[in-house]
Write a structure and sequence with these properties.
The protein is an alpha/beta fold. The chain has 10 helices and 11 strands. Strand 1 and strand 2 form a beta hairpin.
Length: 286
């Protein structure tokens, strides 16, 4: 049986394994594919009803927003260097909308896509325009972001093309995914924090992600392999914890939570790629 790689379409998938998890490895682009994470309709129901990015978000939304604030502004600043006059911004997989809530403070019009019902309801409660599917998004955007989303989708080419179709000419697409090629993944194997085969269909190397974007007609502006949490984010986590425990009577994170956060700070590595729309967009209706 010949299987096509969902990233590069080559018939070069071979069986692989990480720990007890069976994978497919593409010998052409280097992506790894989880062999089975459930039927598509079951996956949609799971994301709409049950999937939560962080267990702490539902109970401690504002504390989570506060400690992630430096990360949001770092991302916004990086992107606006390439698109300083951005007027419309789309965030796919926006969770509770914290990123685009900061974007709109700069006077940029924002739209979010979030399939998870409770997160979407929260974003709407603070006045954000958030819909459950990218199919409901119309018009063109100067910036489209998808942070830690692409690893969850079954058809990455269709996803990237859907994002690209909504970019204005010269618009910027920013994608972040876990770095499957990182030294920590190679050292820790299946115990690596972001090897999550129950929800991650795809496991990207930097080369595979760049190839995907280029195959979809985008030009890569920058590509960085980086620690997901900077020192500023780590400091902000402690500040948020102390502030909310002192003034909002919210308990400090448990020892287990602190240990998990420290572990993620050390081993959590990601790829961030910014790409530009090189051709007039097609398929987005005003």
């Amino acid at each position: 049986m010949s299987l096509s790689c969902p990233v590069c379409l080559s018939n070069t998938l071979v069986p692989a394994r990480l720990g007890a998890t069976p994978l497919w490895r593409c010998t052409h682009c280097g992506v790894h594919v989880t062999q089975d994470v459930g039927a598509e309709e079951q996956t949609r129901e799971f994301y709409s009803q049950h999937y939560v990015l962080h267990s702490s978000v539902a109970a401690q939304r504002e504390r989570h927003r506060m400690f992630r604030m430096p990360e949001y502004h770092d991302m916004i600043g990086r992107i606006l260097r390439y698109k300083p006059n951005a007027r419309r911004w789309l965030d796919v997989g926006c969770d509770h909308g914290f990123l685009i809530d900061e974007v709109r403070r700069a006077g940029i019009g924002v739209v979010g896509v979030e399939p998870q019902n409770r997160a979407r309801d929260y974003a709407r409660s603070v006045g954000l325009d958030v819909v459950p599917s990218i199919d409901e998004v119309h018009g063109e955007f100067d910036v489209v972001t998808a942070f830690h989303v692409l690893e969850h989708v079954s058809d990455p080419r269709a996803f990237v093309q859907a994002c690209a179709q909504r970019l204005s000419p010269g618009g910027v697409l920013a994608i972040r995914v876990p770095d499957y090629g990182s030294i920590w993944r190679r050292l820790l194997g299946s115990r690596w924090i972001w090897f999550q085969p129950s929800v991650h269909r795809l496991h990207f190397t930097e080369g595979a992600l760049r190839l995907l974007l280029q195959d979809c007609g985008l030009g890569v502006l920058s590509s960085v392999r980086r620690a997901a949490n900077t020192s500023l984010t780590r400091d902000s986590y402690w500040l948020a914890a102390r502030t909310f425990s002192t003034y909002r009577s919210v308990s400090m994170p448990s020892f287990r939570d602190l240990a998990a956060r420290t572990y993620q700070n050390i081993v959590g590595r990601e790829i961030m790629v910014l790409a530009v729309q090189q051709q007039p967009s097609q398929g987005a209706s005003a």
